[in-house]
Structure formats: structure tokens, C-alpha cells
Amino acid sequence: MALVPCNVCGTLNSEDTEICLSCEYPIRGRRRPAIFQWAALLLLIPFALTGLSLAFNWLRPKPPHQSPAERTALR
Q1: SS3 of 31, please?
Q2: What is the pLDDT of residues 38-69, one digit of tens each?
Q3: What is the rounded CA–CA span in Å between residue 13 and residue 22?
Q4: CB 51 within 8 A of CB 59
Q5: Do residues 17 and 3 make contact, with C-beta atoms less than 8 angstroms apart?
Q6: Which among 6, 52, 60 has a CA at the least distance from the CA of 15?
Q7: H or E segment at 48?
Q8: Which of 13, 19, 11 is nearest to 1 (CA)?
């Protein structure tokens, strides 16, 4: 049986315990439910796509600017 330190207070606890005997913080940390991870991913995707779209539009070569007189002369 090994002793592991608490992440919060540093008290040594048995690795079999679920919470720290001193501060009552979970020894293995708190795990978020999967729904929060999926929600974060679904919120991240639109922002990432928007950022990629803006980057590609910024990097795309643009046609040279022409004045109205030049446009009518080319016709």
C-alpha cells in the first residue's frame, strides 16, 4: 500500500482512499462528465471554422484594384 500526496494540501494518504482525510478533496481529482467535454467541443468547432475561414480569405491572393476609368477602357 503506497502513500500518495494530496494535490491540494499535500497530506499523505493511502492510494486506496477516495478523498483526502485532511481537506476532503478527491485524491484522483474531479472528472467532468462527458457531456461537458462534448459541449466544449461543439462550441469550439464553429470558432475554429470561422478562424480558418478568415485566415484563408486573408491569405488568398486578391485581384489588383482598378479605377472605374480603367474598367470602362478595358471593355
Answers
A1: coil
A2: 999 999 999 999 999 999 988 888 877 777 77
A3: 9
A4: no
A5: no
A6: 6
A7: helix 34-59
A8: 13
